[in-house]
Amino acid sequence: MKRLLIVDDEAGIVEEVREYFQEEGFEVHTADTVRDGILQLDRVNPDIVVLDIKLPDQCGLEVLRYAKKSHPSIKVIVNTGYVDQALIDEAEELGRDAFLQKPFDLERLQQEISRFL
User: Fold this and answer.
1) Tens of pLDDT along the chain (117 residues)?
2) H helices within the chain, ranges in order?
3) Fewer Cβ atoms within 10 A, N terminus or C terminus of the chain?
4) Domain, as residue range, for 86
5) What CATH number should be reported for the domain holding residue 66?
6) Would residue 113 count as lying in a domain?
7) Closest CA to 114 of 97, 92, 89
8) What gap in Å lies between CA 79 and CA 43, rounded to an integer?
């Protein structure tokens, strides 16, 4: 079973993505802070991370940085509702595998995930 980790503090988005991918046969885990996201990375070792940039405790790119150093095979899809070109560029430099602007369509997210599996 493929494992998906959603790191996002918007409960509605998390629940919508969780339900959609559980129905698609994924084991879905969630975190709403950078700290919890990093803990989940080590605990769950997901295949794919859907990562929000804006999180309450730190910039979500810390999760991306950690994932690419400690778990280089994990694919990371970065998303944000804020258009901050500097952060988008930094995510690319850190090795993000895809980028989606919020609000994103679940089918578009599914296409990106399918591309990596």
Assistant:
1) 899 999 999 999 999 999 999 999 999 999 999 999 999 999 999 999 999 999 999 999 999 999 999 999 999 999 988 777 888 899 999 999 999 998 889 999 999 999 998
2) 11-23, 34-44, 61-70, 85-94, 106-116
3) N
4) 3-108
5) 3.40.50.2300
6) no
7) 97
8) 23
